[in-house]
Amino acid sequence: MDKFRMIFQFFQSNQESFMNGICGIMALASTQMYSAFDFNCPCLPHYNLAYGLGILLVPPFILFLLGFVLNNNISMLAEEWRRPQGQRGKDPAVLRYMFCSMAQRAMIAPAVWVSVTLLDGKCITCAFCTSVPVESLGNASYPRLSQGEILRVLARIPCKEIYNGQQLIANEVAIRYLRCISQALGWCFVLLMTTLAFLVRSLRPCFSQAAFLKSRYWSHYIDIERKLFDETCAEHARSFAKVCIQQFFEGVSMDLVASHCHLPRKAPANAGEAAEKLLGITDQGTMNMALKSWHRCKPPLHLHPPALPTGNGWAEGQPCTHPSVPRRETAAYYSWV
Amino acid sequence: MDRFRMIFQYFQSNSESVMNGICGLLALASVKMYTSFDFSCPCLPQYNMAYGLGIMFMPPVILFLCGLILNRQSLVMLEEWRRPPGHRKKDRAVIRYMCSSIVQRAMVAPVVWIIVTLLDGKCLICAFSGSMDPEKFVGFANMSTAQVQQLLAKVPCKDDELMRNNTSRRAVSRYLRCCSQALGWSILLILIIAAFLARWLRPCFNQATLLQARHWSNYIDIEQKIFEETCCEHSRLFAHKCILHFFESMREEIKRHSFSLPREGEGAKGEEDLLRGITDQDRVNKLLKMWYHEKPPLDVSQAHQR
Q1: What is the ipTM of this complex?
Q2: Are the beta carbons of B78 and A228 separated by less than 8 Å?
Q3: Per-domain residue ranges for chain B?
Q4: What is the DSSP code string of chain B?
Q5: Do B271 and A239 make contact, defined as CB atoms within 8 angstroms?
Q6: Global pTM?
């Protein structure tokens, strides 16, 4: 059990660090994604807004969902939420705690994307270039164009190579203006997020510390219990398989003895463990038949007391039978109710 | 227990180092943020000052809040401040000590940002180019007020068509940069002298109180960590008992329904214990279904009674 204890202490003390690590990696990944993404403003009046705002808002939504998907605890939360009550009551505070902590971590990568996008400025420049105040920034005395024409000219602001409205409003002036607005929005957004995080973190000890300690304990407990149960089942499955296979080989060995009608050769006393482990199968032909039998006719998932001869009819070459109920060799042992 | 002791000695000696490390990382992060941030002054009369001063002061506030959030000790201090007295009195000196050490560490990154900004000069040039006295500079002397304002606002933008190759622009820019760097170096000097004095003169005042406050603030921190570790250990043991109890009750139920006598096979004793009486597919399926539909109650006191 020491090994388990060490492993679980590692997981427990490091589960938070592990989750924080994933969170940090996703934030870095979102920055990397943004710099690798080739932003191409369409420079057309009605498409600019859709493209710009789409690039600003759709990837954060994807990153948010990805944050939930990559979090191992989501299945634990779902299981705890949907399980029948049984003998153990459900505590909504624990569920709320688990959901909040997952949602907080999942929010970081989208917030990083939005901040980086706003601080860079390309998206807002693309989305709102048609709303630039031409009267204050540009040349109001320029020969009047129709509204549509003006929009078309302004829409080309992000695309310097095809911009043809230099007399209407200088390209650099418009871009500088839009970028300034975008960066101001970006810094305000970062300040808002940081203030919210600070408030959430610092107001909690002032109000509900005892309830928080309780929820945290039980949510860790649920996680540990699930892991321990999986480990116990794995251990059980291992023992089950071991006994099942051992009984299979014993069955094969007994059938071999029964079909050749001679007493099992007693291994010499000094052969030791190795001879015992051979389980009576000592030549190539026998081994091949055992392997074929294992493939064609796996034993039922039912372990029986060791003393019973339960060969599966291998040695006589009979067709494989798969009894769905265990054979009642000795009535005194069990009666199934 | 040895392992615990080793781990906690590590935490105790390194709690300060961990916090100093975070503080240093934030300072480096603030320099990196400044260099990767694409500063672009709007070069418009009403917007310059807001932009320049905003870039100089808003990120430090953000960095200060980050410094508070990332510091684990701030939570410990808040808990200590807000807890009911109970059987343990609260010591104001300890809380003050913790608060001041947290705030000092959180101030490092904002100060680094402000100093880097001033030494670089772009922010001040952007913010105050419009407030320059045009009489001092030859190129701006003989123009109307509105025109002068427009031109001065464009000084930070080197590539603007009006400002390219304009020597007066360079003069204004150099002047503002010089002021900015002087201010930056002065602030740095004052802060370092203040830190030096604070560290050297501290032992002259209230050293005993300081030692006490520092000891008890370390104590509170360690106590919190040990409590969390003990809760983890406890919940692991609780879960272990609960699951064993669950398997035992399944085994009892199987025994009750199948009337099988306990087997006396020798070689399989160890494995049989691990199998806990669950030896076929149906029983395993039933166990798993039961685990989902009817989790056992959170009460392991009965395990001892069986």
Answers
A1: 0.82
A2: no
A3: 1-205, 206-256+273-295
A4: -HHHHHHHHHHHHHHHHHHHHHHHHHHHHHHHHHHHS-------TTHHHHHHHHHHHHHHHHHHHHHHHH-HHHHHHHHHHHS--TTS---HHHHHHHHHHHHHHHHHHHHHHHHHHHHH-HHHHHHHGGGS-GGGSGGGTTS-HHHHHHHHHTTT-TTSTTTTT-HHHHHHHHHHHHHHHHHHHHHHHHHHHHHHHHHHHGGGS-HHHHHHHHHHHHHHHHHHHHHHHHHHHHHHHHHHHHHHHHHHHHHHHHHHHH-PPPP--STTHHHHHHHTT--BHHHHHHHHHHHHHSPPPS--HHHHH-
A5: yes
A6: 0.79
